[in-house]
Here is the input.
Amino acid sequence: MSRNSGIAWRLAVVRRLAVAWAREVAQGSSITLGRAVVGNLAALGLQTFLAIGFPACGSGSSEGTVIRFWALGAEGDNVRQLIPEFERRNPGITVKVQALPWTAAHEKLLTAYAGNSMPDLFQLGNTWIPEFQVLGAIEDVRPWLAGSQAIREESFFPGVWATNRVDSAIVGIPWYVDTRVMFYRKDLLAVVGYAHPPATWDEWKEVSRRLRQKAVQEGRDAYAILLPTNEWAPPTILALQKGASFLKDRNTQGAFSDSLFRSAFEFYCSFFHEHLAPIGVTQVTNIYQGFAEGFFAMYITGPWNIGEFRRRLPREMQDRWMTAPLPSPGSDAPGVSLAGGSSLAMARSAANKDAVWKLIEYLAAPVQQREFYRITGNLPVRREVWEDSLLINDTYMRAFRTQLGALAFPPQIPQWEQIAMKIQDYAEIGSVGKTPIPQILSRLDRDADVILEKRRWLLFGD
Here is the structure.
């Protein structure tokens, strides 16, 4: 084996070990132990190769201060348009943006953390925040917030800001928000006596039954609503609306058999059992075509689909659809929706944190928030931006503005995404109607307990 190939082999070993350890930490293992394991790689003669394989982030260079910024997906490509103005305002600071695909971002961030090569600033999906906070990868920005005139908590929607608060720390600044509302066919609802979208669960069920009944009477194979069973968001949103806790005992055990989650899960499954929603995902191969043809009249989705509906629906269909806040289980409309989106996180390892904070303030400022919305369609997190004519005059955006005042989020623990996938799996089983719901939820509790085993051990020692 040549020297170069030997180095490559050792680097591969280190990376595998480091990423595996980072995953363990994210799932609740000991950070101290994990770091010790990486340190002990010196006994294998590999410590040098950590430095070779994972060069540390340096901020000093002939260019002055350099900020390495990792952004994800389309945001990584589009945010580059905002950087020249920041650099003009801040001579001596250079921002190097690296765009990561969403599919690879999580793995790359874990690898970078384990190898001590984190970027100075990075975009973090809100569901990832607890995981990277547990790792110790994110800086608590309260010291910078205390002296900031540009970023104030009251300027942001409360439900979005709360996703960045872990215990008492503020570990990120919201960049854009992603939530879900109801897209619906105004004309089809009007035909069955609903000139307005459903505001409560009772109205939602009533209009759904009327839509299905009319389709059956006309001999059409059509449904009231599309609830894709390969998405965890709809059943989770319904449970949040009921006030379900999802977990219990300091988020160490499943609480899916509890009455609040069970009530929401039963309501979700009832749309399939009453043939108000198609079962599975194979019946709808093209969402936009199905919506235009009236195969379904309602669909819970996010802001990205406003542009898609405008582009993909026929011209004559454009005045026949609208958006609405989600129905509520009671009279306190709207019902809550998920607080999704992304935040800007400062790496704890960043060399020049004051410079990083300047970039965060710049990207979170109202002017940049408005421009970023214009470029990407991502919803602004600042309240004042929603008073801009660009948003006020967009009728499809009004539902989102209302919905942003009613947001909630599931338990903030690193294991949430694994649990969310289990909710999705069991929601699909529930939609078929062959397994009793109490049995389904009992299995979901057991699976959650397995996922949370390490968390229980850390908190309780047994």
The chain has two domains: 54-178+342-407, 181-338+410-460. Confidence is low (pLDDT under 50) at residues 1-22, 25-58.
